[in-house]
Design a protein that fits this description.
Elements lengths: L1 E5 L7 H12 L5 E5 L5 H13 L3 H22 L2 H22 L3 H26 L5 E2 L16 H13 L5 E5 L2 E3 L5 E3 L5 H11 L4 E6 L20 E3 H9 L10 H6 L4 E5 L8 E4 L6 E17 L9 H11 L7 E3 L3 E6 L5 H8 L4 E16 L7 H8 L7 E4 L5 E7 L3 H17 L5
The structure holds adenosine-5'-diphosphate (ADP), aspartic acid and magnesium ion.
The site of magnesium ion (MG) has 3 residues, from loops.
């Protein structure tokens, strides 16, 4: 089987949904289609929850009404009269009546409200397939996708449940929701923003798919962040390790964890452009045939913490005590560098910052800076590849670098800079490592 995932823009309008259907119906294989919410919908649902949390129910209802109008417009463009009146219009009407009812118990229904985007898009897509005369099955992600108390996916359970559902389903094309899942209390939950990529990869792993295809609005993984850098280009092929580093460190095209299930099960992931299906895209697979920098990404919202202590000098067990504090507060560390009397590290979760700093203060003198960014260079930096770190640092002679991490893995060099320097750093690295390298040499 093949897993196809389409993101928000791909299902963002009637015209785009028609393109998605054409792509799928062109493939004569057994497949699972994972859909995101129509673009902008999850943001609106987040806004609705924010209004409700601030006791602004009228504002929430106004957003719901506006969203309903946009869906009425979408279905009027997507469906012929018969499908519109029989299926699509009653469905949208009921869904938005429900959404208005959910606002009565806002706290209880927060995650249920967030789940509606994917529930709506998948139902509309199935109705559209029916209009085209194609038989499909719509299965609810809430019947098989689940997370544990640590918010980690329950891989074995997902596999067992999904396998059983598929065994009872004869349709060649199965449609399901990305993003949404159940938590250990059997409540509706989600895999965090952008989580439909993760759903697709988890589903691919659960059914041992032949390939996972992530269809989006760009022709594959680019060598640098196209939102901040001009003249980026798609990479034809990239390894799981490189892609996982890029996703984790900010390449928005992939949810941070989404490569892991595919990598563990050695299932190739193909990134494709819904609006340019002819373009080759990027194939992520088990390969390490290149050396040097393949791509650059950046992750914001980083906090750098420095712990200084003369007790660290020649002592053992110091780092253990530092790590224990982060473990206690379930806060992962991204980067770490040490000197004889200080250790600097970064985290991206502010939730327990106050408590962490208080406890670290009993170990040493603590300073921290917020609003930092990690620049991640992914590639193959095997030890024989000389001059790579020099080439990287040469590009950034004009940028203050707060931390450098090199050698932790063979596939990553990370640099910590102030967020204000991020865009400049990404552009300087692009110029020095890609544009200049590819310029023809003068005779
Ligand atoms: P979808 O809604 O399909 O999940 P996303 O908006 O989540 O799409 O991801 C696609 C976007 O990711 C692109 O439009 C692009 O702006 C952004 N992006 C950031 N870094 C990269 C990169 N290295 N390569 C390609 N796209 C990137
Ligand atoms: N709809 C969700 C979001 O906007 C999940 C996704 O699109 O991947 O975050
Ligand atoms: Mg996305």
């Amino acid at each position: 089987m093949i897993v196809f995932k389409f993101g928000g823009t791909s299902v963002g309008s009637a015209e785009n949904i028609k393109k998605v259907a054409a792509i799928i119906n062109d493939c004569d294989r057994e497949k699972i289609i994972v859909l995101s919410a129509v673009s902008g919908t999850t943001n609106s649902l987040v806004e609705i929850n924010n209004c409700l949390a601030n006791d602004k129910k009228e504002d929430a209802i106004a957003i719901i009404n506006k969203l309903e109008l946009s869906y009425n417009q979408l279905i009027s463009e997507l469906f012929n009269e018969e499908s519109h009146h029989l299926d699509a219009q009653p469905f949208i009407k009921t869904k938005f009546e429900e959404l208005r009812l959910f606002t009565n118990e806002a706290t209880k229904n927060e995650k249920i409200i967030l789940a509606q985007g994917e529930i709506i898009s998948t139902n509309l897509f199935q109705i559209y397939q029916k209009q085209l005369g194609n038989s499909t099955a719509l299965i609810s992600a809430l019947d098989f996708m689940s997370i544990d108390t640590n918010e980690e996916p329950e891989n074995e359970k997902i596999k067992t449940k999904l396998t059983a559902i598929l065994a009872n389903n004869k349709a060649k094309t199965i449609i399901t929701q990305g993003f949404i899942c159940l938590n250990p209390n059997n409540e509706v939950d989600n895999l965090k923003r952008g989580g439909s990529d993760y759903s697709a990869s988890l589903i691919g792993a659960a059914i041992n798919a032949e390939q996972i295809q992530i269809w989006t609005d760009i022709d594959g993984m680019h060598n640098n962040d196209p939102r901040y850098v001009e003249n980026t280009f798609p990479i034809g092929e990239i390894s799981f390790d490189e892609a996982a580093e890029l996703a984790y460190f900010g390449a928005k095209i992939l949810h941070p964890q989404s490569i892991i299930p595919a990598q563990k099960n050695n299932i190739p992931v193909l990134l494709k452009n819904t609006f340019n299906p002819e373009a080759k895209g990027t194939l992520i697979k088990n390969c390490h045939n290149s050396t040097g920098v393949r791509a650059i990404a950046a992750k914001d919202g980083i906090i750098a913490i420095k712990i200084k202590s003369y007790r660290m000098l020649m002592a053992y067990g110091f780092l253990n005590n530092v790590f224990a504090v982060f473990e206690k507060y379930h806060t992962p560390i991204d980067m770490i560098t040490t000197s004889e009397i200080a250790v600097s590290l970064t985290i991206d979760n502010q939730k327990y910052l106050k408590e962490i700093v208080e406890e670290l203060n009993t170990i040493g003198k603590v300073e921290y800076d917020t609003d930092m960014s990690i620049i991640c260079l992914a590639g193959n930096f095997s030890h024989s590849g000389k001059g790579i770190s020099a080439a990287v640092l040469n590009c950034l002679t004009d940028v203050a670098i707060r931390m450098i991490s090199y050698g932790g893995s063979q596939y990553n060099i990370s640099l910590l800079v102030e967020k204000n320097d991020k865009v400049r750093a990404l552009n300087l690295l692009n110029e020095g490592l890609f544009v200049q390298q590819n310029k023809p040499q003068e005779a």
